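forwarding from the other thread:

> can someone predict this with magnesium ion?

sure thing
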Amino acid sequence: MGSFRQRVFSGVQPTGNLHLGNYLGAIKRFVEIQESFECIYCVVDLHALTQPVSVWGGPKELARNTREVTAAYIAAGIDAKKHIVFNQSQVPQHAELAWIFNCVARLGWLNRMTQFKEKAGKDRENASVGLYAYPNLMAADILVYHATHVPVGEDQKQHLELSRDIAQKFNNDFAESIAEAGYEDGFFQLPEPLIAGPATRVMSLRDGTKKMSKSDPSDLSRINLTDDSDEIVRKVRKAKTDPEPLPSETEGLATRPEAMNLLGIYAGLTGQTVEMVLKDMGGCQFSAFKQALIDVAVDKLGPIGAEMKKLMADPSHIDSILVDGAARAEAIARPIFDDVKKIIGFVRA
Ligand code: ATP
Ligand code: MG
C-alpha cells in the first residue's frame, strides 16, 4: 500500500455554450493524455448548480447540456470504453467526500479563491453557499479516485492548489489513523496539475483581457464547439485586433493581448508553439492571418461539431455511456471512500 497508480481525473461543467477555450485548455488535452494514463472524465453536474438557476438553465437544460458535454468528449476522441466517462451526480461519493472536505478546508483558504470573487461579483451576499464551497467539491472529485494528475486550464490552477492543501491537511489531521489503516505515505497523494501548451487561457474574442467563457452574454466573444463554418468565419472576422502587423518574435506580443490570444488559438489548433507560428506568420497583416485561422478552425472544429450533432440525435446512447461509466467510476470510488470512513472513525457495518 501507499503506492499510487498514475490516474487522471478532470471534468467540464454542463453549463452550456461549450467553447474553444474548453476544447484547447481541457478536452483536447484529455484526448492526448489517454495514451499515457488511466483517465476518468466527468461531466460535473453538481458544480453546475453553484450558479443561479437562470444561468444553468433549469432541469431540461441541465440534462441537455450534460449530454452535450458527453457528446463533445466522444466527438473529440475520448474512448469511453477504454477510459471512464460519466456524470458526477451518479456517483454519490463525490458529494459525501465533499462534506468531509468542507470540514477540513479553512474559511481563510476559500476566502482567497479568485473564481468565487469573479463569479459572485458585487452581490456576494446573494451567491450560493455551493459557489463558495465549489473548490472543496472539486478536491473531492479528484481525491475520491486517488487521481494523480489533473489536466485543466490556467483558471483552475488555484483550485488545484487548494486540493493539494486539503489532501495534506487530511493526511496530517488523521496521520495516526491513516497509518493504522496501513497507509505508510499518507492517504491522499497530492494531485499534480497538467497545465501546458499555447492555449491554457483562451481569451474573449472581443476583449483580450477577459477569459473566453460560457457565461459571457456576447456570443461573438467565443467560438462554440457547435458553431458552423459561417459562424466561425463571422466571429474570427469580427475578433478584436490592433492595427500593427504580427511581430516576428514573442516579445513583440507583450502589450498586444488580442494578437497573443489569436496566435495562441492558432498554435493550439495546429499543435505548434507560438514561436513556430511567428516564424511562418511574422510580418503578416491580420487580414491574412485571420483567414489562416478561419481555415484551421473550420478544419479542426467542423468535424467535432458535426459528430456532436450526430451523437445528440440519440440521447439514449449517450445516457448508456454515462450509466456504464458511473458504475465503473463508483467501483473505484467506493473502496477509497470506505477507507476514508474508517480513517475518520465513522461506525459502519
Ligand atoms: P463557467 O463559466 O460555467 O465556469 P467555463 O468555460 O469556465 O464555464 P468549466 O466547465 O468551468 O468551463 O471548465 C472546464 C475546463 O475548461 C476547465 O479545465 C477550465 O480550466 C477550462 N477552461 C475554461 N475556460 C477556459 C479558457 N478560456 N481557456 C482555457 N481553458 C479554459
Ligand atoms: Mg469555469
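The chain has a mean pLDDT of 96. thats all i got for now
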